[in-house]
Amino acid sequence: MHISLDGFVAGPNGEMDWIKVDEEIFDHVGKRISEGDTALYGRVTYQMMENYWPTAADKPNASKHDIEHSKWYSKVHKVVLSKTIKDADLTNTTIISDKLSDSINEIKQEAGEDILLFGSPTATHALIQQNLIDGYWLFVNPIILGRGIPLFADIKDKIKLKLLTTRQFTCGVTELNYIADRQ
User: Fold this and answer.
1) CA neighbours within 13 Å on the CB side: how many for 153?
2) What contacts 30, CB < 8 A, 6 or more positions away?
3) What pLDDT score was predicted for residue 157?
4) Please, is 21 exposed, middle or buried when counting C-beta atoms within 10 Å of its C-beta (0-12, 13-18, 19+)?
5) Cβ atoms of residues 179 and 164 within 8 Å
6) What are the phi and psi torsion angles at 70 (to 5°)?
7) What distance in Å separates the CA atoms of residue 124 and residue 119, rounded to the nearest whole number?
C-alpha cells in the first residue's frame, strides 16, 4: 500500500496523484505479487481493477507492467469485501459480505500463498479492527499531505510489528515490510 510520510493512503477526495511509481517499483512489486495467489480488494478498488486489468495487456500501447500485471490479475483468485456486489457469474472471484473474521480465517487455512490486500482503505480498516492483517507492505512516498484518508483509523489496541525488510527506490519511495508481532 502506498502511503504519505504522514500516513495517508489518499488525499481528502480520494486523490492518489501524489503516488510515485516507476519501472523499478513495478518490477519489484511484480516479483513479490507473483508469489501470491489471492488478491483481496474492497468493492471500490475491485471495480476499478476490473475496469482496467482484464484487457490492459491487449492495448496497443501496453507497457511491460500492464502486460505482466494483466496476466497475473487474470489468474489470481480475487476476494472482494462488499455488501452490494453479488458473486453470480464472477470468474475466479469470491465475495465476502458478512462474517468477515470467519471468512478470512477460512481462506487463510486453505492451501496457497499469501493473501495480498490492494489499496482499499475501508476494507483495510475493517480488517485491522478485527486483527486479520498479518503483515504490512508499505511504500512510503516522500510527501506530507496534511490531510486525507489515513491508513490507520479507529485503532483500538496497539499493533506490535516486526520489521522484516526495507528498500529505498531511486524515485525516493521507501518500502517497509512488517509482520505482525503477536507474541
Assistant:
1) 13
2) 65, 68, 69, 72
3) 85
4) middle
5) yes
6) -60, -40
7) 8
**CA 170 and chain centroid, separation:** 22
Q: What is the pLDDT of residues 68-79, one digit of tens each?
A: 889 988 999 999
Q: Which three cell numbers stand for residue 114?
A: 499469501
Given a contact cutoff of 8 angstroms between Cβ atoms, the answer to whether 178 and 162 are in contact is: yes
Mean of all residue pLDDT scores within the chain:
90
The rounded distance, in Å, linking the Cα atoms of 167 and 25 is 10
- Please, are residues 126 and 82 in contact by the beta-carbon 8 Å criterion? no
Domain count along the chain = 1
> Is pLDDT of 113 > 80?
no
Measured CA angle at 135 (ends 119, 9), to 5 deg? 30
C-alpha 104/C-alpha 19 separation (Å) is: 29
Q: Is the pTM of this model over 0.90?
A: no
Rounded Cα gap, residues 12 and 4, in angstroms: 13
What pLDDT does 88 receive? 67
121: CATH: 3.40.430.10
Domain span at 43: 2-180
CB 180 within 8 A of CB 134: yes
Sheet of 38-42: strands edge to edge? 93-96, 77-81, 38-42, 115-117
